[in-house]
Amino acid sequence: MGDFWVMVFFIIFPIIFYSYRLLPKDIKEIEALGYVFTSNYYESVRLLVWTLVGKFMPFIAFSIVFLRVKKTWSYSLFIPIGMYLFQMVRVVNDDAEFFDTIDFFYILPFIIIYCYIMVLCKRQIEISKAKNKYKEKLVEAGMELILSENKEYE
Length: 154
Description:
Elements: H1 2-11, H2 13-17, E1 29-32, E2 35-38, H3 45-68, H4 78-95, H5 103-140, H6 144-149
Antiparallel strand pairs: 1-2
Helix pairs in contact: 3-4, 3-5, 4-5
């Protein structure tokens, strides 16, 4: 069932990416959810959203691939995940006119925390899959009684 939702998400990726086209072209200020946002660095809000979506989509794609793949090489995906996270923060900082020469070192703790959370989620997914596989093997072997006695696997 999880594969279905991943497939659906990747199918709607282009729709999400081109959502910036719903915004008016040459507008510097937009109101959303009671908050007025003014684009200072970028020439329009549409360009800012296009830039952010262009960074956010690969960030999400790499995160999904990391969670879905069991191989050891998946940990190397932390490099592009961290890079896109840094770039998204940089885009927001550029528009907020907050410039810093060593802003990578400020974002590094957030990258480390995000990677740690991703590893915990990946382990939880693997544990859940292993429990389901064990449960299926017990059912195939006709040992449902063991499942009813042990509530941990339900």
